[in-house]
């Protein structure tokens, strides 16, 4: 399970709850940004599994914790449609698509080290040496 924890007006953290009472922060949106904490396929699985809100709301909730250079062709369309479904529908698809392209631009690469998914992003905690190996593996397993 992934959740977010607010810090008032300062920002929020995205955490994975892999079980056993553990809570592992994978991304933070605040003055000291960390992330990304999710690859695109992990985001898609979270959106599909979720039960709170709509799929579009879940996609946009977890999008700030997501970064991935290897996006499927429909990623921009999915984000543009989500933006239109929860926001101002008068802006039109072209503007929503441009916003989606900007939100998804420049993502890092994800690879596998052993069984753990790791990211090459400069501020990612899910990188080799960023989290203890056991935590990397626990997060990977929780996000399958």
Strand segment tally: 5
Helix content: 25-40%
Q: What ranges have pLDDT less than 50 throughout 5 or more consecutive residues?
A: none
> H/E element string?
EEEHHHHEEH
Going across the major beta sheet, what is the strand order? 1-2-3
**Number of self-contained structural domains:** 1
Number of helices: 5
Amount of beta strand: 15-25%
What value does the average pLDDT take?
90
Rg from C-alpha positions?
Answer: 15 Å
What would you call the shape? globular
- The quaternary state of the protein chains shown equals single chain
Major sheet description: 3 strands, antiparallel
Q: What gap, in angstroms, lies between the N and C termini?
A: 10 Å
Draw up the topology in text.
Layout: E1 2-6, E2 11-19, E3 22-30, H1 40-49, H2 55-62, H3 75-86, H4 93-104, E4 110-113, E5 116-119, H5 133-142
Antiparallel strand pairs: 1-2, 2-3, 4-5
Task: Please describe what this structure looks like.
By secondary structure, this protein is of the alpha+beta class. It has one domain. Helix content is 36%, strand content 22%. It has five helices and five strands; from the N terminus they run βββααααββα. It has helices spanning 40-49, 55-62, 75-86, 93-104, 133-142; strands at residues 2-6, 11-19, 22-30, 110-113, 116-119. The chain has a three-stranded antiparallel β-sheet. Strands 4-5 form a two-stranded antiparallel sheet. It is globular and about 45 Å long.
